[in-house]
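We store sequence with structure; for instance:
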Amino acid sequence: MKEPAVDLNEVISKHRWDLKANYESEADAVARRTQEAENAALEREKARWLFRFSLTLTLLVFCGSLYLFVSGTTDDKKWAAALISGITSGLSGFLVGQSKK
């Protein structure tokens, strides 16, 4: 015997499926969003200070190397040139990478 065909579109149209999961109250959600916003602001501030510190340290090393390259001995000029070259190539690589974003 052949069983009657079942129209799946008809079966689906008769039912409505909703899935809702609410694990936190509105007050908890507001507190969580506030905490996340504060944490994000703190992370941005930490990143900003780390960038400033790194930039200052790099500038000090660059200026010291440049000074030794101009007025140092032959051995000082060798490693000062290597440092200057490394810093400038790193900076140019960083800038090229930023322009591709």
